[in-house]
Amino acid sequence: MIEQADVVIIGGGVNGASIAYHLAARQYGTIVLVEKSGLADGSSGKSGGIIRQHYSNPALIRMAIESRRFFERFDAEVDGHAGFVQNGFLIVVAEKETAALKANVTLQRELGLDVELVAPAQVGTILPGINTDGVALAAYERSAGYADPYGVVTAFAQRAKQSGVTIHIGRQVTGIHVQDGAVRGVETNLGLIRTPLVVNAAGPWGRHIARMVGIDLPLTVKRLQELVVKPPTAYSKMNPTVIDLCHLVYFRPEPGGLVLAGGGITDDPEPVDPDRYKGADFETLSDVSERLTRRMPGLADAELIRGWAGVITVTPDFHPILGEAPEVQGFIHAMSCSGHGFKLAPIVGRLIAELIVDGHTTTLDITPLRPDRFQQGRALRSRYEDFPILA
Ligand SMILES: Cc1cc2nc3c(=O)[nH]c(=O)nc-3n(C[C@H](O)[C@H](O)[C@H](O)COP(=O)(O)OP(=O)(O)OC[C@H]3O[C@@H](n4cnc5c(N)ncnc54)[C@H](O)[C@@H]3O)c2cc1C
Q1: I need a labelling partner for 268 at 20 to 30 A (CA). Which of 86, 179, 210, 274 fits?
Q2: Conformational region of residue 265, where left means phi above 0, alpha means psi within -120 to 50, and beta covers everything else
């Protein structure tokens, strides 16, 4: 028997799960989520889970604020365990980035965020033990935090399932049927699902999925490596997350008195295959450790507990691609990508649900993130050129 659905969501990462949850909350017909592997087996399961609101463009600041508010009420609203810890966020920059930092903070404040500029001499009162060498200016967001990506994906998916969403684990989309410029169905290894609407939430596989309908998105796949260390004395889970633009390193507390850190995109000479990519290497991990201890000398004797690599999808401007494809009716991109999409997933779910149910978004305007902005010369810009992942 051929299956039928009002919408098929491709991908069981944080975006697919959030979209399923929010669509089910709007009681939108028959919803099917298809995941080729397991829930959170892609980028989401490797994510650092940092939730900050420091961005260069209003669209992302607004999205990050809405998502952070959602994380604050996640456990009560979704009835799950996001593991959200509201530890705050500190960004420290060298002289050449101070204008960018000030501009971003001004923008954030205009958009209603409680954020303040911090002089180097005051940074140690926010994070004891930090070495402020090279820091010309900092900014501090009290409401930022971090969460457990597995807990978030699981809770979204479980609640969606309880609300009637069909979730197929281990089912792979192999093709998409398009007729007269509109989506008609999704071909899988377990048969056809007829549908007029497909959401591409396949993360690093999103380019491959878009090609199934003849669209070539300007996406590349990159590796990120992260590590967890155990300091000689337990690190407080309330110490703020730090992005250090002088040493290009970020770190946050990890439950259990540990510290999680990363150094940005790994410079791979060859294109990265999301199905077969290299794991973490000691060279990169020790480089990240060294940059971490330059900023936090007290972590010099910390012991490496684990290190891993994950893949992310990168757009030319390091911002998400959201919205219906202009070329194919019923094909919706939900690529909240470029290495910072975990934090945005709650609002992405809500916005895509609005787009599908109401025909347009109502909470926020997503036109700056439209899929064809690159062809139209409307790519967005980050104020930080050395660490584009910050967007
Ligand atoms: C190491 C690392 C650290 C990160 N740190 C942060 C951070 O601190 N904060 C932050 O906000 N973001 C962070 N990110 C980015 C964030 O994790 C991603 O943006 C987010 O998880 C993307 O979620 P997704 O649901 O779009 O994609 P994914 O989680 O990759 O999900 C896509 C799913 O689609 C499935 N799929 C693919 N092809 C098919 C097919 N043909 N049929 C069926 N299913 C298919 C895959 O199996 C996969 O499960 C980090 C990422 C990495 C790798």
Answers
A1: 210
A2: beta
CATH number, position 338: 3.50.50.60
Q: Which residue is closest in CA terms to ligand 1's atom 32?
A: 202
Q: For residue 331, list its beta bridge partners.
A: 198
Distance (Å, rounded) from C-alpha 236 to C-alpha 44?
A: 25
- Pocket-forming residues, ligand 1, beta carbon under 6 Å: 10-16, 34-37, 41-44, 46-50, 172-173, 201-205, 224, 226, 310-312, 336-337, 339-343
Name the residue at shortest CA distance from atom 31 of ligand 1: 13
Return the H-helix or E-strand segment holding 312.
strand 303-314
Domain that holds residue 12: 3-46+150-218+317-390
Number of domains the chain contains: 2
Closest atom, ligand 1, to C-alpha of 34: 43
> Which residue's CA is minimally distant from atom 26 of ligand 1?
203
Ligand 1, atom 41: nearest CA belongs to which residue?
173
Q: Is 237 found in the same domain as 110?
A: yes
Query: Is the same domain home to 91 and 137?
Result: yes
Instruction: Provide the pLDDT for residue 362.
Output: 96
The three-state secondary structure class of 263 is: strand
Statement to judge: residues 295 and 329 lie in one domain: no
Chunked into runs of 10 residues, the chain (391 residues) has average pLDDT values of 94 98 97 98 97 97 98 97 98 97 98 98 98 98 98 98 98 98 98 98 97 96 97 97 97 98 93 96 97 98 97 95 98 90 98 98 97 95 86 88
